């Protein structure tokens, strides 16, 4: 257990203006941490070890929106993890402080030197700083390890640069995990993440389109979050400690034509309970097909029936292969 959490003081600090630690020194790292994959986990474990050895709090600095989202807007890659789930994951890794800085025009204009002074020195009073080997910052992207090392020597903090984390000959990165998910290589994504890829959310009331078609679904509102998968899948849905098999669709329902942003809908097999409002996780196991627009509702229903049978048979095969 970490220094602050012994006193139940896990903290989330939002905004640079609220970053006041009253002289308390920290060990810290900075990044997007999308997905918190094996490489990220190595950084967090090192951060936790240093926190315990030096007896100072551990801190992670992240940005909302993520810088790539700020610059690319709707063209930015889909996230691997929602902000709320990322925060919970930091808590599970025994991190003491999460600093969430709003990435806006003001943040974008900060030079590398200004960023170090305001965040690293004045804000976090960093004793040790851990960064990735590709870390760059500042409006001119002049901020790198060499610069941090030079400033650190003059301001009593050390800088540690982590080397690229490789797994089975592949660089572990959010980009490569996203690529695996887009190509429905869920086992590969699981290995790089160090955990299954899951989408978390609450079951919300929808337009009841699935129910009217004879296939009631649990609708998980993605809100502003988009996932790097699209189509029909065999999934496992977890709720209240129980696990259920299901056929899921991620997309905009082109045949019905009533959506602009994708939603996640899960038809649970042999299930008739009420789980509205429940927090659930959905683990993607196998892709059945891409989302497509059908010529009419009757054709849509026939294909949904086919998809559900395909999912049932896929799960049956997994069970038979395991026995």
What does this structure look like?
The chain has helices at 38-54, 67-72, 83-92, 105-109, 112-123, 145-154, 174-182, 186-193, 209-212, 297-322; strands at 11-14, 26-30, 58-64, 97-102, 126-132, 158-162, 166-167, 170-171, 198-204, 218-220, 231-239, 242-251, 263-268, 279-289. The protein has 323 residues and is an alpha/beta fold. The chain folds into two domains: 5-167, Rossmann fold (3-Layer(aba) Sandwich), CATH 3.40.50; 196-322, Elongation Factor Tu (Ef-tu), domain 3. The protein has a six-stranded parallel β-sheet with strand order 1-4-3-2-5-6, sandwiched between helices. Strand 7 and strand 8 (170-171) form a beta hairpin. Mean pLDDT is 91; it is low at 3-7.
Q: In the CATH scheme, what's the topology name of the largest domain?
A: Rossmann fold
* Whole-number count of domains: 2
CATH superfamily of the largest domain: HUPs
- The outline comes out as elongated
**First-last Cα distance:** 40 Å
């Amino acid at each position: 257990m970490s220094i602050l959490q012994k006193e139940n003081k896990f903290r989330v600090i939002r905004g640079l203006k609220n970053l006041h630690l009253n002289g308390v020194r920290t060990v810290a790292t900075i990044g997007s941490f999308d997905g918190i994959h094996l490489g990220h986990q190595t950084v967090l474990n090192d951060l936790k070890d240093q926190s315990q050895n030096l007896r100072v709090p551990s801190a992670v600095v992240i940005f909302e929106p993520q810088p790539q989202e700020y610059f690319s807007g709707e063209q930015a890659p889909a996230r691997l993890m929602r902000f709320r789930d990322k925060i919970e994951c930091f808590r599970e890794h025994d991190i003491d402080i999460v600093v969430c800085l709003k990435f806006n025009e003001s943040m974008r204009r900060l030079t590398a030197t200004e960023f170090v002074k305001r965040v690293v020195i004045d804000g976090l009073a960093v004793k040790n700083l851990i960064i990735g080997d590709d870390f760059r910052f500042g409006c001119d992207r002049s901020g790198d390890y060499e610069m941090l090392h030079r400033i650190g020597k003059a301001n009593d903090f050390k800088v540690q640069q982590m080397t690229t984390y490789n797994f089975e000959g592949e660089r572990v990165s959010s980009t490569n995990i996203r690529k695996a998910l887009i190509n429905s290589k869920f086992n590969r994504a699981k290995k790089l993440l160090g955990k299954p890829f899951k989408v978390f959310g609450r079951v919300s009331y929808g337009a009841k389109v699935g129910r009217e078609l004879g296939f009631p679904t649990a609708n998980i509102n993605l809100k502003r979050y988009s996932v790097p998968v699209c189509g029909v899948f065999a999934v496992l849905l977890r709720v209240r400690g129980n696990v259920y098999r299901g056929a899921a669709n991620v997309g905009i329902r082109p045949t019905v034509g009533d959506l602009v942003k994708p939603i996640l809908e899960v038809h649970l097999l042999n299930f008739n309970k009420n789980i509205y409002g429940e927090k659930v996780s959905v683990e993607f196991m196998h892709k059945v097909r891409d989302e497509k627009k059908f010529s009419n509702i009757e054709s849509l229903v026939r294909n949904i029936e086919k998809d559900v049978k395909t999912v049932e048979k896929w799960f049956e095969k997994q069970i038979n292969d395991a026995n």
